[in-house]
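[audit] Reproducing an earlier prediction to check determinism. Same input, same settings, fresh worker. If the C-alpha cells differ from the archived copy the diff job will pick it up downstream; this log only records the rerun itself.
[audit] input (81 residues):
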Amino acid sequence: MSPASRIAAVALLVLCLPAVARAQEMTLSVAISMKEAVETLGRQFTQSHSGVTLRYNFGSSGELQKQIDGRAGCLPATSSS
C-alpha cells in the first residue's frame, strides 16, 4: 500500500469516527509507520470534537494484530501492510 493510500485509509477512519466519538475516549491501534499522519489527523479530529480524547497504540502490524485478536470490541486497525 502506498503512503498516499495509507493516509487516505486513516483519513477515512477518522472521518467515520463521529458516530463512535460519543464514547468520549478512544484508543486507535495503528502501525508505527503511520504515526505522524494519525497524530496529525487526531489533532484535527479532537479540535472539532470537544470532550473526545484519542489514545494511540502504535506498534508493528503483527503486534497490533495479536492485541486486537485478544480484545473484544476492538475496531479494525490501520496497518502499513
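[audit] rerun output stored. Observation attached for the diff report: The chain has one domain: 3-69.
[audit] end
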